[in-house]
Specification:
Distance between the termini: 94 Å
CATH architecture of the largest domain: 3-Layer(aba) Sandwich
Helix content: 40-55%
Radius of gyration: 26 Å
Structural class: alpha/beta
Strand order of the largest sheet: 3-2-1-4-5
Number of helices: 14
């Protein structure tokens, strides 16, 4: 009788490297490893041999980069969703993209379960499992970190070494990292003490430490169509290629480092350093274009929506009616967010340096401090009288009551 199958979210990192033998030792399953390529780069090299040698029956490596950028990154960028003012959600929106791939392969293979390597202290367990519940609620979910005897990364390293499983970390370089086309996160080790300054020289992989960036600024131009970046310095790029190119340019100028102590969904605070070079530039440029193209009410309401959108993505609620409804609202607002933004990159800073759009709501003729024939400044008096009427009435009431006393 054929064994039942379990699909494992496999990265080749520390956690998923030891999960394959652990599953085989503790369950009577055939393990099918799945690596969703969302832009990990060289991290996908050699995974086939490693996964099979560790005990998996096969490994799928699925190229999800374009789907990830188009269907997850860009909708979040258009929403201007930022978690707690700093985090550009690089891990958060990658998980539902990968989870969809896991479900697709589980259904194709006739698997009965999906297994992931997220810890019981983190957010990723929620993101993976909510996606599975939304897309294939009949599948069983196995989360080893919540049930096995391994209690720390040091334990996991020891477990791997006893079984001769090659792992990409040592007890000396013990950062927990997650990389995709959008960002690279760093957690653990000396970063667990918020008083410790990050050692950028040994920590950063995508970005040059700002003090070592070039001494001259670099100017770039980004063209957007309905909120989506299409061109870089006048050249048309596909979504993946544009982000890859912008990662190189921004990273070389030290742009895109965020050091955060954030509130995890599970109730604790955690400290992480995020490298998001292209994302940082795109968020700043896109916002600058919105300032030009959106009216006051829409812009202000959209800023409120952005907070909720970020919480939904961070909390793993991608496949929910509310997130879809908010995306529909955002898409409507982006119909006129088209134009060109020029930014200056210099030693870790990204500064807007010009913006233009055929849908600009800015009128120099009206806004000028010089002589104009459009705006009658006398009209402001009546406006202020009406706008300030409630304030005036309340003040008169207080004055009258004081005299009565």
């Amino acid at each position: 009788m054929a064994k039942e199958k379990v699909v494992l979210a496999y990265s080749g990192g520390l956690d998923t490297s030891i999960i394959i033998p652990w599953l085989i030792e503790n369950y009577d399953y055939e393990v099918i490893a799945v690596c969703g390529n969302v832009g990990q780069g060289k991290e996908t090299e050699g995974l086939q041999e490693k996964a099979v040698k560790s005990g998996a029956s096969k490994l799928y490596i699925e190229d999800l980069r374009e789907e990830y950028v188009t269907n997850f990154i860009f909708p979040t960028l258009k929403a201007q969703a930022v978690y707690e003012g700093k985090y550009l959600l690089g891990t958060s929106h990658a998980r539902p993209c990968i989870a969809k791939c896991l479900v697709d392969i589980a259904l194709k293979e006739g698997a009965v379960a999906i297994c992931h390597g997220a810890t019981g202290k983190g957010n990723d367990q929620v993101r993976f499992e909510l996606a599975v519940k939304a897309l294939a609620p009949h599948l069983k979910i196995i989360a080893p970190w919540r049930i096995w005897d391994i209690k720390s990364r040091e334990d996991a390293i020891e477990y791997a070494q006893k079984r001769n499983i090659p792992i990409p970390v040592t007890k000396q370089d013990n950062y927990s990292r997650d990389r995709n086309i959008w960002h690279l996160s760093h957690e653990g080790s000396d970063l667990e003490d918020p008083w410790n300054e990050p050692e950028f020289d040994k920590l950063l992989k995508l970005i040059v430490p700002p003090e070592k960036a070039p001494d001259s600024p670099e100017y770039i131009e980004i063209d957007f169509e309905q909120g989506i970046p299409k061109k870089l310095n006048g050249k048309q790029y596909g979504p993946v290629e544009l982000i890859e190119k912008l990662n190189e340019i921004a990273g070389a100028n030290g742009v895109g480092i965020a050091d955060i102590v954030e509130n995890r969904l599970v109730g604790m605070k955690s400290r992480g350093v995020y490298e998001t070079p292209a994302g940082t530039v795109l968020y700043i440029a896109h916002k600058q274009l919105e300032y030009l193209c959106l009216d006051r009410q829409t812009l202000h309401y959209k800023e409120q929506v952005a907070i909720k959108f970020a919480e939904l993505v961070y909390d793993g609620n991608w496949y929910t009616p509310l997130r879809e409804a908010l995306s529909a609202f955002v898409d409507e607002t982006q119909k006129t967010v088209s134009g060109t933004v020029r930014v200056k990159l210099y030693k870790g800073n990204c500064t807007p340096a010009g913006v233009k759009s055929p849908y600009s709501l800015y009128s120099e003729e009206i806004a000028t401090f010089g002589r104009d024939e459009v705006y009658n400044q006398k009209d402001a008096e009546g406006f202020i009288n009406l706008f300030g009427l409630p304030i005036k009435v309340r003040a008169l009431m207080h004055s009258k009551n004081k005299k009565g006393n």
